[in-house]
Amino acid sequence: MASVCLIGCGNIGSHLAMLLARLSAVLRLILVDPDTYDASNLTTQNIEQRDLDRAKAEVLAERIRRARPALHVEPLVATVEALPPGRLRGADLIVAALDGNRARQSTNQRAARFGVPYVDAGVNTHGLLARVDVYNLADSDSPCIECGWHTDDYARLAQRGPCDAPVETASTNAPSHLGALAGALAAAECARLLEQDYSMVGRQFIVSADWHRAITTSYARNPACRFDHHNWSIETLKQAPADLTLQQTFALAAGSGARSLAVESQSFATSRVCPACGREEHCLELERVVDARRCEHCGGRLRAPGFAIHETLSSTSRVSRRHAKHSLANLGLQPGDLLTIRGGASVARHFELGGHGDDT
Amino acid sequence: MTRDEDRVFTAFCEGQLRIAQALDAASDVLTLRALGEEAPVTRYIARFEMPCLAGGNGNGLRHAPHSTIGICFPPYHLSRFDIARVATWLEPRDAYHPNIKWPFICLGHMPPGTGIEEIVYQIHEVIAWQRVTMTELDALNHDACAWARSNRDQHPLDVPPLKRHSLDYALEPIRVPENRP
Question: Do residues A99 and A172 touch, judged by C-beta distance below 8 A?
Answer without folding.
Answer: yes
